[in-house]
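dumping this here so i dont lose it
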């Protein structure tokens, strides 16, 4: 029989003069909380600010001072006041009248503007690789440009746009109770569109299938114009492509992904660079409607759209280049340490290709490619920080980690999330929130009523646990620094005391600051960048110091004064004349390594507070699914059938993860996305080698890791960070 994991949702009953009453539930901090609010104190935290290092002017000028005083608006609520008309008939036709009044920017001569762009002129004149040469007649090229441009986009049809807006408005009102948008975020975007004088480029992280129609509708309804969105031409029929182009969709021409020495590919990429800068809209509407047929039959839900703080792209490109320094591949950074050939961890940036390799990206210079990749990390970091943590993510985390008192722990974890500057997307009475959250997870948990009004929550094994693990991963960005620090402490203690030893025994050991820095750096180099989402302008030393500060602030580590060492609070004896107390946060040079020398003699111990063991275990388990997937991928090396394609080997590993999960009951790492991350990480680490072939890129086992001994070293290296 499958093991069922149980968690009690306990209620305490008390008698009073008026009969039996339900008392308050006690949180993990010993505070009695009955209501959950989405903020601490008076104001809601502001999330998603742009980088102060790379865009200091935007950070200051494009921030709305009274943003915390502003609330939310419902963007799908259209009343008589939203139109120019009044009356009984207007109140019944307000959706249609509002759609007719939407402003659609006038069309411009796209072909003429594209022909006059620098990139297309360079191709015509033969100054670009694959150009036609000085003697080429430009008229055939002009026809080719018009053909490519016709494949990319068509002039938007205002009537179709307004009609489609009315249809989408009716559809969204049937689907959602409300769609919330923060007024302060909207004011910042309006301010950026008015002051910069340049078109807005909006990048989104898609949370659901509805985003393809929801996001363009929200931006159009708030006066930000028609937004053009790129769309894959292979995903819809020619008739649907023609309709979507008239609604503002963009389609990348197939020639853009041809080889760099192809004249057709050069011209297509030049046209794309000249024509995708303006607006776009309504991509994938038909596919979304097909996928949401079952949603309309269910209960209505609420949605929220988050907008991060805008910034100037010109300012970013100017300032970010000053933060660039030396880079090394993951193989250069970690392989000597994994094999025991070196103990020194280079304090430098990891070079990792985690963005899709496409023709337009390869056509850029190497410096510009690096700029695009760093910009994507900045924007994705802001986007994730802007997303509110939902109640299902908090509940899934508590259920996975077998917390016994759901009511109290739910309040505690919500408060800890808010303390770290993240927003939450829920509020209300505690009991109602917990019951509603459990109802949303009813397909993956079982609720059993037992004696005295207690409720037993049982997680369903298999797919249920995998779904809870995906929801729990949404909480990782809020606790990422502490989770990295806890796993680093775990690796450091593993070499000194038995991992299964009591907390008091582990608290005796002194933990050197340099040793902690080293373990954090190893984790930074091991984990993929699309999960860490660290800002590329931040040096490794600064991040290590930030991780250590977080561990001290949350009470897990306490400073230990060793004999003969300077006290931690003594600032008078610092070597002010030798070096400054501060370093530029974007400095990736070796000068940061000098700061590690100042950490000599600084030691810490694990705190002996009663709540620390559970909190330490909670932080370590946040990274357990990914780290266990990596460890099992190392075990699978001698069983895998190589050579194989990338997709084929990922499927092999995923089947192995599923089989292992059936044996040990740990289904959280049996996820196809974790299998993909493991294969890519091992490829970057040099465990797997990739070679081209007619069937696609083929993976081979590296000769270095063909031996069983080196495979065991790799597995042991990963296992040191895993807390059982």
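and the seq i came up w/
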């Amino acid at each position: 029989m499958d093991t069922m994991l149980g968690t009690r949702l306990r209620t305490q009953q008390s008698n009073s003069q008026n009969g039996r009453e339900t008392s308050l539930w006690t949180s993990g901090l010993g505070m009695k909380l009955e209501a959950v609010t989405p903020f601490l104190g008076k104001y809601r935290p502001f999330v998603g600010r742009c980088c102060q290092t790379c865009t200091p002017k935007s950070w200051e000028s494009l921030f709305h001072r009274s943003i915390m005083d502003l609330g939310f608006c419902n963007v799908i609520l259209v009343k008589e006041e939203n139109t120019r008309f009044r009356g009984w008939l207007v109140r019944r036709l307000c959706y249609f009248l509002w759609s007719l009044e939407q402003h659609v920017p006038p069309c411009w001569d796209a072909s003429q503007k594209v022909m006059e762009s620098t990139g297309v002129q360079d191709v015509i004149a033969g100054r670009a690789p694959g150009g036609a040469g000085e003697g080429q007649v430009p008229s055939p090229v002009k026809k080719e440009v018009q053909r490519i441009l016709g494949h990319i986009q068509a002039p938007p049809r205002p009537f179709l746009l307004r009609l489609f807006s009315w249809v989408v408005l009716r559809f969204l009102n049937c689907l959602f109770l409300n769609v919330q948008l923060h007024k302060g975020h909207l004011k910042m975007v309006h301010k950026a569109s008015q002051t910069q004088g340049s078109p807005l480029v909006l990048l989104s992280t898609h949370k659901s299938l509805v985003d393809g129609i929801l996001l363009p509708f929200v931006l159009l309804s708030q006066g930000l114009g028609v937004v053009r969105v790129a769309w894959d031409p292979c995903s819809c029929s020619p008739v649907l492509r023609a309709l979507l182009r008239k609604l503002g969709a963009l389609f990348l021409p197939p020639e853009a992904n041809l080889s760099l020495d192809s004249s057709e590919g050069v011209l297509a990429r030049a046209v794309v660079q000249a024509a995708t800068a303006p607006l776009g809209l309504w991509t994938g509407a038909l596919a979304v409607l097909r996928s949401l047929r079952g949603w309309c039959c269910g209960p209505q839900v609420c949605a929220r759209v988050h907008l991060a703080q805008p910034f100037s792209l010109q300012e970013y490109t100017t300032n970010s280049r000053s933060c660039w320094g030396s880079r090394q591949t993951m193989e250069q950074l970690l392989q000597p340490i994994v094999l025991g050939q070196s103990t020194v961890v280079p304090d430098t940036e990891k070079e990792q290709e985690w963005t899709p390799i496409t023709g337009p990206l390869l056509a850029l210079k190497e410096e510009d490619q690096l700029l695009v990749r760093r910009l994507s990390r900045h924007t994705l970091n802001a986007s994730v920080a802007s997303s509110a943590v939902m109640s299902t993510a908090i509940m899934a985390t508590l259920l996975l980690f077998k917390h016994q008192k759901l009511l109290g722990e739910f309040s505690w974890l919500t408060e800890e999330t808010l303390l770290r500057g993240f927003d939450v997307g829920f509020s209300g009475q505690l009991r109602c929130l917990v019951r509603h959250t459990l109802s949303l997870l009813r397909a993956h948990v079982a609720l059993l009523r037992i004696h005295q009004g207690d409720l037993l929550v049982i997680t369903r094994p298999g797919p249920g646990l995998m779904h809870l693990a995906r929801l729990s991963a949404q909480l990782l960005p809020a606790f990422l620094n502490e989770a990295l620090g806890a796993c680093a402490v775990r690796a450091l203690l593993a070499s000194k005391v038995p991992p299964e030893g009591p907390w008091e025994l582990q608290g005796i050991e002194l933990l050197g600051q340099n040793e902690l820095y080293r373990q954090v750096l190893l984790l930074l180099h091991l984990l993929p960048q699309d999960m860490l989402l660290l800002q590329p302008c931040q040096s490794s030393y600064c991040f290590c110091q930030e991780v250590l500060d977080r561990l001290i602030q949350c009470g897990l580590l306490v400073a230990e004064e060793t004999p003969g060492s300077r006290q931690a609070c003594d600032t008078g004896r610092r070597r002010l004349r030798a070096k400054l107390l501060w370093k530029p946060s974007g400095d990736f040079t070796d000068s940061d390594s000098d700061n590690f020398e100042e950490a000599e003699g600084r030691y810490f111990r694990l705190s002996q507070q009663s709540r620390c063991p559970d909190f330490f275990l909670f932080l370590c388990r946040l990274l357990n699914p990914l780290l266990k997937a990596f460890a099992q991928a190392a075990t699978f090396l001698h069983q895998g059938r190589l050579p194989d394609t990338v997709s084929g080997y990922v499927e092999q590993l995923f089947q192995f993860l599923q089989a292992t999960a059936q044996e040990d009951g740990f289904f959280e790492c049996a996820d196809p996305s974790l299998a993909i991350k493991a294969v890519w990480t091992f490829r970057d680490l040099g465990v797997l080698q990739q070679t081209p072939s007619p069937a696609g890129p083929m993976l081979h086992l590296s000769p270095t890791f063909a031996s069983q001994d080196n495979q065991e070293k790799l597995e042991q290296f990963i296992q040191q960070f895993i807390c059982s």
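Confidence is low (pLDDT under 50) at residues 1-33, 127-137, 277-296, 568-596.
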